[in-house]
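Sequence, please.
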């Protein structure tokens, strides 16, 4: 049994060896076949350096492809030539090209157009901001065409290839004579230019003009802020202190109700104004006026005082004439010695106008005449005495009871109406 098993194992190993040998032969055949019949069917790619485009000087164009590829090219209608090195381009040219890789794959014929415009014009350099007088430091930039190199001097000497190369803005803080020139990529040299800057540093704080100024107004008011040219004005309306983060004044501000405007300006020299404020009070309520003493009848002259519920002016007229804005301004109490009417109105600081008031004062210096009816005398029985006044008045009286006694007295005195009478009931004493 052991010998039989060993024979079977030997047969199995022999079969596996034959299989491995067969596969090795197949791989060798495939490798040899691929040498003469490659599996690469992808055509090569050709690139150009520099890329097609417009250039201001002569250029050399290089063609490249994958390793082992052969490139062919033609210029205009010339014959196709194998590429061996850079192609010199001096005028407008179209290069047509294609390539064969080592497997024999050919690329599509492509074209690259080059426009060569030889530059003979010198560059033009400008200084910004423009030369002139300034009251603050100036950052000057020298701008020329792309690819140009700019050199400059600041001491009045002529610039040359050893002068300072312009890279960043030049800060000027004093009078400076700036000279500069440029050389472009084609080697054209610009004539030297001169820029004179007069720098006078301004240390004066700006002053903002406010129109209209703060005060009392009877309706909405629109406020404008103005400063010197180039200054920026910042403001606040909520009572806070304004800063550079506050709103920048651009257009007029309208107050429809009372408020506080705070602001400051910064000029081009960096000078900063102290924060200022203007208060706008919108008062739409008219004042109320009064006079003392109150209008009425008086037995002698009176001194009339006029008053308003708000600060402002009172204008008045003595008589029936209607007061106006041209009427006298009340400044002191008015003495009234004769009957007259004082007509007046008030104007508050917001120019709100009160209603016109007419106060009539009657000065009556003639005493009233009192008549007793029946007249005084001896009477035998009870009588009724009537005291009459010639005008409405208050009648005061007393009773001397020597021969009579008071039967009935309604009151000790009585204010008369139109009749001006007082009735007394008297009877003889017992």
């Amino acid at each position: 049994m052991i010998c039989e098993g060993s024979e079977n194992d030997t047969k199995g190993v022999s079969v596996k060896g034959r299989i491995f040998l067969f596969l090795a032969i197949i791989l060798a055949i495939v490798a040899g076949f691929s040498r003469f019949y490659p599996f690469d069917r992808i055509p090569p790619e050709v690139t150009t350096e520099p890329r097609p485009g417009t250039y201001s000087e002569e250029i050399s164009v290089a063609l490249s492809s994958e390793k082992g590829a052969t490139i062919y090219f033609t210029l205009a209608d010339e014959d196709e030539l194998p590429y061996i090195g850079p192609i010199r381009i001096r005028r407008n040219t179209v290069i047509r090209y294609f390539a064969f890789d080592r497997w024999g794959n050919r690329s599509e014929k492509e074209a690259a157009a080059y426009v060569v415009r030889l530059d003979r014009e010198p560059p033009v350099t400008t200084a910004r901001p423009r030369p002139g007088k300034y009251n603050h430091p100036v950052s000057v930039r020298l701008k020329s065409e792309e690819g140009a190199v700019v050199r400059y001097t600041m001491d009045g000497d002529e610039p040359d290839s050893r002068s300072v190369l312009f890279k960043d803005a030049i800060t000027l803080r004093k009078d400076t004579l700036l000279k500069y020139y440029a050389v472009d990529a084609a080697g054209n040299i610009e004539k030297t230019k001169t820029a004179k800057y007069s720098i006078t540093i301004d240390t004066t704080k700006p002053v903002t003009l406010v129109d209209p100024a703060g005060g009392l107004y009877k309706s909405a008011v629109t406020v404008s802020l103005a400063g010197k040219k180039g200054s920026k004005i910042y403001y606040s309306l909520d009572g806070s202190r304004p800063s550079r983060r506050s709103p920048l004044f651009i257009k007029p501000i309208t107050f429809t109700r009372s408020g506080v405007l705070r602001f400051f300006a910064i000029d081009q020299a960096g000078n900063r104004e102290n924060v200022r404020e203007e208060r706008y009070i919108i008062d739409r309520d008219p004042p109320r006026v009064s006079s003392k003493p109150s209008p009425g009848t008086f037995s002698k002259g009176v001194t009339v005082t006029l008053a308003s519920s708000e600060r402002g002016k009172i204008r008045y007229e003595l008589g029936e004439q209607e007061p106006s804005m041209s009427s006298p301004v009340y400044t002191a109490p008015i003495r009234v010695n004769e009957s007259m009417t004082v007509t007046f109105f008030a104007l508050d600081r917001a120019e709100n106008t009160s209603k016109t008031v007419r106060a009539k004062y009657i000065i009556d210096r003639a005493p009233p005449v009192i008549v007793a009816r029946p007249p005084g005398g001896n009477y035998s029985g009870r009588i009724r005495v009537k005291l009459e006044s010639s005008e409405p008045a208050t009648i005061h009286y007393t009773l001397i009871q020597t021969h009579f006694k008071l039967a009935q007295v309604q009151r000790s005195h009585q204010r008369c109406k139109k009749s001006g009478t007082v009735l007394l009931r008297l009877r003889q004493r017992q």
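Residues 1-6, 403-420 have pLDDT under 50 and may be disordered.
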